[in-house]
Amino acid sequence: MKAIALGPMGIVCWNRGDTGEAESLISTAIELYAEFDHPGMVAVCIEVIGWCQAQSAPDRAATLLGAARTVWQRHSQLKLAQSALATVTRRVETRLRQKLGNETFDVAFDKGQALTLDDALRLAGATIEPRPEAPAPRTTLTRRENQVAALVAEGLTNKEIATKLTISPRTVDAHVDHILTKLGFRSRTQIARWVSAGDDG
């Protein structure tokens, strides 16, 4: 079942009080969204897992809500999705503040806001592929492959990359395959992390 179906199903389960099933569905969805580099939907999943843990692990729930806030701010273009969750999130936050106290909630929330995306995913229970310790140099790829890799890191699909670079989608497919092979990667997410590591360096 695709992540696009798992996410809404998880929210439906949460609404009917089945937090265990909701968290199970969302935990599966978040790994798929992360694999295909959809940070907006990753933020949705982190936030909903925060809802699910509000009763059993309020500190963790507050941290997850903080982490989701940062993902929204840094990565997501899905403002409508964020707005759709906002009413429930405010209710959950109110309950967490009542349970933890404002000071404890704020400390946990701020901790979540400071997390990297990978750390936020791990906190939400996702399995994250390790980053390479020493990223391969940019010279490993051709100039065009570096261009394609940079656009993959921006979250563009192969079709969108083809349009942007004025080349055929089949050519983009070939470039992405070459990039994965040369770098020893298996996913677009790993390409995005490699690009990010190079930018940081």
UniProtKB/TrEMBL annotation:
InterPro entries: Sig_transdc_resp-reg_C-effctor (IPR016032), Tscrpt_reg_LuxR_C (IPR000792), WH-like_DNA-bd_sf (IPR036388). Keywords: DNA-binding, Transcription, Transcription regulation. Residues 134-199 form the HTH luxR-type domain. Coiled coil: none annotated. One of its GO terms (biological process) is regulation of DNA-templated transcription. GO terms for molecular function: DNA binding. The keyword Transmembrane helix does not apply. The keyword Transport does not apply. PANTHER family: DNA-BINDING TRANSCRIPTIONAL ACTIVATOR DEVR_DOSR (PTHR44688:SF16). This is Regulatory protein, luxR family. It holds the Pfam family GerE.
